[in-house]
Amino acid sequence: MKILKWCSLITLAIAAGACGSKQAEKVTESDLLQLFGKDPKSMFRGSEMGEKADDVMSREGAALIFASDSLLEYQLSFSFEEENIPSKIYYSFDEFGLFEIQVDMSKSADVSSTLRSDIEQTLSERFGDGEKDGAYLLWTTNSPSNRLVEITLSEDQQLDGKPFLSLNYLEQLDGEL
Fold this sequence. Notes:
Helix content: 25-40%
Order of helices and strands: HHHEEEEHEEEE
Shape: globular
Strand content: 35-45%
Number of strands: 8
Structural class: alpha+beta
Oligomer: single chain
C-alpha cells in the first residue's frame, strides 16, 4: 500500500509540474496582449480612430487617471519577461472622435531591446513591415474612415535619465503631411 501511495504522489507531482510549466508559457505568450488587447483587427486595445470618448472609456480596462472632453489618460502595468512595465496610455479626441493614441512604457535596460523587438514584431504582424525613419520605426495603415494613420515606435529618456518606449498612433487630417 505504501508503494501505491508513493507512486500516486510522484505521478501527481509530475502532473502538477507539467501544468505549471504550461501556465508559465501561457503567461509569456500573453505578455503583449496585456498591452495591445485581444482583438488583432482593432487599432489598439479594441479602439478605432474616430470613436467617441465614451466608447473608449467603456472598453478600456486600465486605470483611468484623467478624463476631459479631449483627453483620456490611463495607467497600465503589464508583465514582460517577469518584469513589471508601468505604462501611460493617452487617447486624444477632437470633434470627429479619437485621432491619436500615445503609449509611454517605462522600462529597465535589462528588457529594453527585447521589449522593443517584440513590440516591433507585433506591429509588423498587424500592419506590415515598418520602415526605419531616423530615430524611430514607422508603420502606416488606414482608419475606418480611410484616413492615413501613422504608427511610430521610438526610444527616449525621461528627464531623470530613465529609458522609455513611446508608441504613437496618429490619424492624419485631410491635406496634412
